[in-house]
Amino acid sequence: MSTVDETRMTLSIHPSAEQTGEAAASEVAALVQCHPAAVLGLATGSSPLPLYEALAKNEVDLAAVTAFALDEYIGLPPGHPQSYAAVIGHHVVEPLGMTPGRVHVPDGNPRDEHRSGEAYEAAIGAAGGIDLQILGIGSNGHIGFNEPGAAFSSRTRVVRLAERTRQDNARFFAAPEDVPTHAMTQGLATIFEARHLLLIAHGRGKATAIKRALTGPVTEDFPASLLQLHPRTSLFLDSEAASLLES
Ligand code: GLP
Questions:
Q1: What would the DSSP string read from start to end of the chain?
Q2: Does residue 36 form part of some domain?
Q3: Which of 70, 74, 169 to mutate to test the pocket of ligand 1 (most atoms within 8 A of CB)?
Q4: Do the domain assignments include residue 225?
Q5: Is the predicted pLDDT of residue 208 greater than 80, yes or no?
Q6: Is any ligand 1 atom within 6 A of the Cβ of residue 146?
Q7: Lowest mean pLDDT among 7-11, 64-68, 122-126
Q8: What is the CATH number of the domain that holds 85?
Q9: Given pLDDT bands bounded at 50, 70 and 90, which one contains residue 102?
Q10: What is the pLDDT of residues 171-180, one digit of tens each?
């Protein structure tokens, strides 16, 4: 492991996505072993899947953990297999033996989106805040669904998805036009308040975004650059995602 900045960011690079997931899972497991009722933030997308798979093989008991998903598409029918509620249920809650009632996902069909966002923020606060937030990164630097231009002060709210994000995520849907145009996402301020951020990325397609997030200017034009300011961030990368970083 090498340290980019001793006070802020640790960087852990592994030969494969699978090994990256195992290393990241160890960090999550260590937290839960010390704090069985820890509060986790959960990312979706393909990046954290090796972490969840490795964690499922770990002996750690996650039944007392509370969790908050980062985001949810707006407008998919409840139970749609690509809704993040369904994805979290299938890839996280069931294999990890989490308690379904303790796992929260933003409402993708809110009657009042403003209130729904506020209620999600309140629930995170009532749980004592997020101890460890798992993050992926979009190829355009988004975290959660906070697209380029999102305010660092943003809170949980409904956002319009960037076309690039809709194209990136079209692989999960039958047709590109089926990708929702909007999502409810934790805001950048919400994410930043987590006590520990854990970002996982693998594959050559993330190399440019990782380089910009870690070494580019801290700017709302590239949301993941906010990680440079966080007091505790752990990055788990495979060698392809890390390939554009100077050694
Ligand atoms: C998705 C999610 C993000 C995720 C990112 C990367 O759209 N909203 O939380 O981190 O985009 O996705 P993937 O890991 O599949 O590349």
A1: -EEEETTTEEEEEESSHHHHHHHHHHHHHHHHHH-TT-EEEE--SSTTHHHHHHHHHS----TT-EEEESEEESSPPTT-TTSHHHHHIIIIIHHHT--GGGEE---SS-SSHHHHHHHHHHHHHHTT--SEEEE---TTS-BTTB-TT--TT--SEEEEPPHHHHHHHGGGSSSGGGS-SEEEE--HHHHHTSS-EEEEE-SGGGHHHHHHHHHS---TTSGGGGGGG-S-EEEEEETTTTTTS--
A2: yes
A3: 169
A4: no
A5: yes
A6: no
A7: 7-11
A8: 3.40.50.1360
A9: very high
A10: 999 999 999 9
